[in-house]
Amino acid sequence: MKKDISFSPLYFLSSLGMWWLSVTFFMYIMFLTNHAATPIPTFNSLQWIFISENIFVQALIVISIVWIIYFWIQHFRLLFWNLGQLKAYKKSSEFKKLKKTNAEISLMTLPLTLAMSINVLFIFGAVFIPGLWSVVEYLFPFAILAFALVWVLALKIFSEYFTRIIVEGFDFTQNNNLSQMIAVFAFSMIGVGFAASAAMSTNQTTIAVAMIGSLFFVTLTIFFGALKLILGFKSMLRHGLAVEASPTFWVMIPILTLLGITYVRLQHGIHAGLEMHTETGSLFIVTTIILSLQLIFGYLGYKVMRANKYFITYLSGDKKSPGSYALICPWVALVVFAFFFLHLGLVKNGVVDKFSLIYFLLLIPVIYLQIKTIITVFILNKKLLNP
């Protein structure tokens, strides 16, 4: 890693992107393999597939696991590097300046990335540790506690920032982007983390506590998301989108993915854990609405960044910006949610048959976007971090 990098909290997005890419490969074994006995694939379910399934399915699992491991390692390597850089950065004069500007909100990338790390550990443990699922009920309280600690950190950072701008005022001339939505992104990440325990536990107390934590952050996400989205668009329409911050236009895509997954998890928890039955047709409606919104933001953001030459300037050009890592999360979030839409929205409701020709045709653009994102990550790492 370069030692002469001028650090910014936005570099945490590099670690964040690695986790998202790991999850895109987890989606293959999540939705394309049989794990009827557990909500997610486990070491035991994958082990059985290696005994009973054909060589093509086995190859798919091996390829997915190799990439999961690779991006898992990269996630934590970059996380520890960022934590070390942040520790030194807090002692600098640049940090003091940051705390007086709109950019202070970038510190929310810390709880955002830490919340992701907890999710990474959970997925990694389920897939790679034999028999872990037999004791998983004992692990859920620890997962809830871990997210609660991130909860405290996130609220501390955000409350200090929000208190300052309410007392001293907010600089609307520097708000011509959606960078303020990074806090909302963090809230949605913590919310989906709590929802995991609600979806997979069979203990009603665990489910109830996890749901309360999740719904708390869903509420924050919706309220502050609406507020900051309106204020951001107001400044953009008045001053034009800040070119360097252009990728923030896409921040709604991962937020919508996390809200969609949270909805799926909470619905499963209500149905399986609390025995309050809901209709599967709602998954078709909700996933379609969310995917539609993501595609709208994706298309408009692409048109804007083509018009202001962001890709030429900051991706393939000479200019460097840690904010370029904000390009990664939206793309992979769209890949992840496309799997949910295809399998829970379409296949589960009988709209598309699994493994049919239409099914694989729908997967082609998803796979293309995944490959395109991986290439972009390697370009950015070489350009900004030079590992």
Question: How is the topology of this model organized?
Answer:
Blueprint: H1 12-31, H2 43-52, H3 55-89, H4 93-98, H5 109-128, H6 136-168, H7 182-200, H8 204-239, H9 252-273, H10 281-307, H11 310-315, H12 328-347, H13 357-385
Question: Would you give an account of this structure?
Answer:
The protein has about 375 residues and is mainly alpha-helical. It has helices at about 10-30, 45-50, 55-90, 95-100, 110-130, 135-170, 180-200, 205-240, 250-275, 280-305, 310-315, 330-345, 355-385. Helix 1 packs antiparallel against helix 3 (about 55-90). The N and C termini lie close together (about 5 Å).
Instruction: Give the CATH architecture.
Output: Alpha/alpha barrel
Beta-strand percent range: under 5%
Helix content: over 70%
Q: Name the helix and strand elements from N-terminus to C-terminus, one letter apiece.
A: HHHHHHHHHHHHH
Number of domains: 1
Give the distance, in angstroms, between the N- and C-terminal Cα atoms.
4 Å
Largest sheet: none
| Total number of helices | 13
User: Within the CATH hierarchy, at the fold level, what is the topology?
Assistant: Glycosyltransferase
CATH class: Mainly Alpha
The whole-angstrom Rg is 21 Å
Backbone shape: globular
Mean pLDDT: 90
* Low-pLDDT segments: none
Structural class: mainly alpha
- Number of beta-strand segments: 0
Short structural description:
This protein has helices at residues 12-31, 43-52, 55-89, 93-98, 109-128, 136-168, 182-200, 204-239, 252-273, 281-307, 310-315, 328-347, 357-385. The protein is mainly α and 387 residues long.
